[in-house]
């Protein structure tokens, strides 16, 4: 499916697709994984833009050719994501599993240009629509950085409010605490 215009205000996380298997997982199963220890601070974004590494070969490497809408995320262990690798050295490490919508192919891929080694970074729908190279995705002006910073901060605060709202007011039921107190008096 070809991508339609992304909203100018969309918050986009550029993420690395290290190989074909990760592309297939995203395309067929609708999720992408990020190790917790190397995850960006805010993952509550609107879209993922997938940077394809040299593993994709001539004509497909070093570019962004696909985006996907973020539908949600959860924290899990690698062994639960990739069950065919139970003995992997990082099997017990925590990963974010980002549920994504259908991969949307860009009409015109965004080439890396001079950039080849990329980690996660944020951009906006406005920057994304006009980008000729990946360097054009970088927020450069102070005004744009200010807007991006406020957007990221707002998303992080909303994510924390959501987590706090999920927790019960007391982790342990007061009736159980009362019973435990009675056992101490026996």
List keywords for this structure.
Archaeosine Trna-guanine Transglycosylase, Chain: A, domain 4; disordered C terminus; 7-stranded mixed β-sheet; alpha+beta; 7 strands; 186 residues; 28% strand; globular
What is the name of the CATH superfamily? Hypothetical protein
Q: Which H/E pattern describes the elements? A: EHEEEHEEEHHH
Rg result: 21 Å
Task: Indicate the proportion of strand residues.
Answer: 25-35%
Count of helix runs: 5
E-strand count = 7
Structural class: alpha+beta
Task: Determine the mean pLDDT.
Answer: 85
Describe the structure.
The structure is a single chain. By secondary structure, the protein is of the alpha+beta class. It has a single domain (11-166), classed as Roll (Archaeosine Trna-guanine Transglycosylase, Chain: A, domain 4), CATH 2.30.130. Helices cover 30% and strands 28% of the residues. The chain has helices at residues 20-29, 78-81, 125-130, 142-166, 174-184; strands at 11-17, 31-35, 47-52, 63-77, 94-100, 104-111, 121-124. Strands 1, 2, 3, 4, 5, 6 and 7 form a seven-stranded mixed beta sheet that branches. The model is unreliable at 162-173 and 182-186 (pLDDT under 50).
Secondary structure elements and pairings:
Blueprint: E1 11-17, H1 20-29, E2 31-35, E3 47-52, E4 63-77, H2 78-81, E5 94-100, E6 104-111, E7 121-124, H3 125-130, H4 142-166, H5 174-184
Parallel strand pairs: 1-3
Antiparallel strand pairs: 1-7, 2-5, 3-4, 4-5, 4-6
Concise summary:
The chain has 186 residues and is of the alpha+beta class. It has 5 helices and 7 strands; from the N terminus they run E-H-E-E-E-H-E-E-E-H-H-H.
């Amino acid at each position: 499916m070809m991508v339609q215009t992304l909203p100018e205000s969309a918050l986009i996380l550029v993420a690395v697709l290290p190989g074909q298997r990760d592309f297939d997982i995203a395309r067929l199963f609708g999720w992408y994984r990020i190790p917790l220890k190397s995850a960006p601070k805010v993952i509550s974004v609107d879209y993922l833009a997938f940077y394809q590494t040299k593993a994709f070969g001539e004509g497909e490497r070093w570019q962004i050719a696909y985006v996907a809408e973020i539908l949600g995320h959860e924290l899990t262990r690698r062994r639960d994501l990739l069950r065919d690798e139970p003995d992997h050295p990082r099997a017990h490490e925590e990963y974010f599993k980002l549920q994504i919508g259908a991969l949307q192919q860009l009409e015109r891929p965004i080439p890396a240009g001079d950039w080849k080694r990329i980690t996660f970074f944020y951009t906006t729908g406005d920057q994304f629509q006009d980008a000729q190279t990946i360097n054009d995705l970088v927020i450069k002006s102070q005004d744009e950085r200010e807007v991006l910073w406020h957007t990221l901060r707002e998303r992080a605060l909303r994510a924390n409010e959501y987590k706090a709202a999920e927790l019960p007011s007391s982790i342990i039921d007061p009736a159980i605490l009362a019973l435990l107190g009675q056992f101490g008096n026996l």
